[in-house]
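Researcher: Please generate the 3D structure of the following complex. Treat every line as part of one assembly.
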Amino acid sequence: MKKRKKIIHQPEKLQIAVDIVIFTIIDDKLKILLIQRATKPFKGKWALPGGHVDINESLEKAAKRELQEETNVKKVYLEQLYTFGDPSRDPRGRVISVTYFALLNKKPAIKSASDAADVRWFNVKEIPSLAFDHNKIVSYALKRLRWKLEYTNIAQRFLPRYFTLTELQRVYEIIFGKKIDKRNFRKKILSLNLIRPSRRKRKMVAHRPPRLWQFVSSKNVILTKRELIF
Amino acid sequence: MKKRKKIIHQPEKLQIAVDIVIFTIIDDKLKILLIQRATKPFKGKWALPGGHVDINESLEKAAKRELQEETNVKKVYLEQLYTFGDPSRDPRGRVISVTYFALLNKKPAIKSASDAADVRWFNVKEIPSLAFDHNKIVSYALKRLRWKLEYTNIAQRFLPRYFTLTELQRVYEIIFGKKIDKRNFRKKILSLNLIRPSRRKRKMVAHRPPRLWQFVSSKNVILTKRELIF
DNA sequence: CCAAAAGTGTTGGTTTTACACCCATGG
DNA sequence: CCATGGGTGTAAAACCAACACTTTTGG
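Model: Done. Output below.
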């Protein structure tokens, strides 16, 4: 398994990588996927999944490909985050990293990537010290995620097609990290016309069966000031 | 499976450029700086100022350097916008462009850059068809600028240190493209405690001399929901 | 019938919007 | 004394935050 990687010093060559912050909600906690590096530099350290961009590949395609090397998902929300280009961010040479964040609506099967010693979901509140400048990237991604949750309909990317209002509320509570009043939440979310009720109810629960809802649009919607959620 | 190492012969190498959308307000209009290309491809077309990133130069430094090749300003607000990396965006080969936007608080002297046939300020409402994907970049920059004006204290970057409330209001009006009620604007902006009055007044005007104000912090401040300006 | 989560309204405080007149100066 | 932009308050409407009980199901 040990792969000898030649650490060629290429002071003249500039490289582009993509790194991805993959979020999902597992057991009512917001998690991100990290891989443990099998090779130097930072061997043994946890890092974001990522890799090089092929010469004829768009950045987004590269991000999608890297994502699929770790997980089996195909339908996924991907958004470009920021480009980190400090000349000293990678000890091997000049590597500019275009970062993305991805949102998954369920825990995917994890493949074992070839160059990883291990792969795991980490609670965002328990991120260890990461390789490269990846802690910075994660914190940037988290900020962006919270921000988008407030002013867009991005919450849908964490949910299946049909969901209950309580499940939707929980997405907000988990990501914002605070409790929200149920009545106020419902009043607010319904006034936005982002979601519509389906005729279905969730059956086989030991309590009053909740109605199932769905998002009206699968496109990204930007809310204006007075529509923002908390 | 993923062991595909890209040993494929690379017909071209990947390059990184920065492109900058330079905004300023001139004659009560929002303008951006464009250069007319002197060389192929797109010879004769207008384009954003920009250029290649040196191997040991951070992206922001590269953007600053390019900015100074066109203008004489040094103190300038610069912010990374987005990275455009479509493989076909540049006919010469694979060029990934990291874009920035810059805000100037006054019309700078324009140097004549070596590779430009001409350099001009364009009203954002009258942008011609540009080289490469630069129209897309400009429209993205405009969106971001309007957005930031609403939820940060970025307006200060268009103003000198001391300014009148009417001048500040005009920044908002010009960029949002709509009139704002003077009393409501003042009430709002004062309630935010972003600015403080100086003892000075602007003299030598043929009407009641206005008080001069300054921003409390030259750092970027992010406003929360209830503080947003309109 | 018990446990569990679903579902539902009202009120008081705050924020927003719309709107018109007097003030201080230079010429 | 005129022209010009500077400066100021109020009331009605919309919005937000806080708060508790009844309903429906499975077991």
